[in-house]
Amino acid sequence: MKITIGVEGKTYQATRPEQSGHVEAAMKCLFCGAEPLRAKGVGSNIVKGRDYYLNDNAVTLCCNKPIDFIKSEFDTIFGLEEDEQVLNGPWRVY
Length: 94
Ligand SMILES: [Zn+2]
Hints:
By secondary structure, this protein is mainly β. It is 10% helix and 38% strand. It has one domain (2-88).
């Protein structure tokens, strides 16, 4: 699966750590400087494309600032449920 996030008009590669409900990008948060940047979708504003999910209602975990989007592109049908949990899961406190 390929995951990208949009922050302040730019697109960055991201990954989803095993067993986690968020995505991570190897970069500093543009808002507060936390590294790596962790983000998570909120609400249910998901666009389901033929081979991707796009959630344009996402926030950083570090400082709860809105980012542009989280996009998950996948090669197969497997893993969709997990993807949906990431993009549209309940808010988790770590
Ligand atoms: Zn931050």
